[in-house]
Amino acid sequence: MIAKGESVNPGMVVKYIIGKGSGLVRERAKLPTEIKEGEYDYNYYIDHQLIPAVSSIFSVLGYVEEDIFKESSQKGLGKFFRVE
Hints:
The chain is built from three helices and two strands. By secondary structure, the protein is mainly alpha-helical.
């Protein structure tokens, strides 16, 4: 950021977006102004932020991540709740 002429202060929040591509995540982290629409790595956000959060919610109901996310067909919420 400093090299691009932007100010950096101790304790400031730095916003970044993970872009598509290969390599280390730190190499794909870009400032929001550097990423065009559609260039972000949506799989990164699904795999590293969304699924872990949702998995912890479903684990309370007795489901494991493999039961929820590894099938290729779409499910409705009704499939996750047992009717007895």
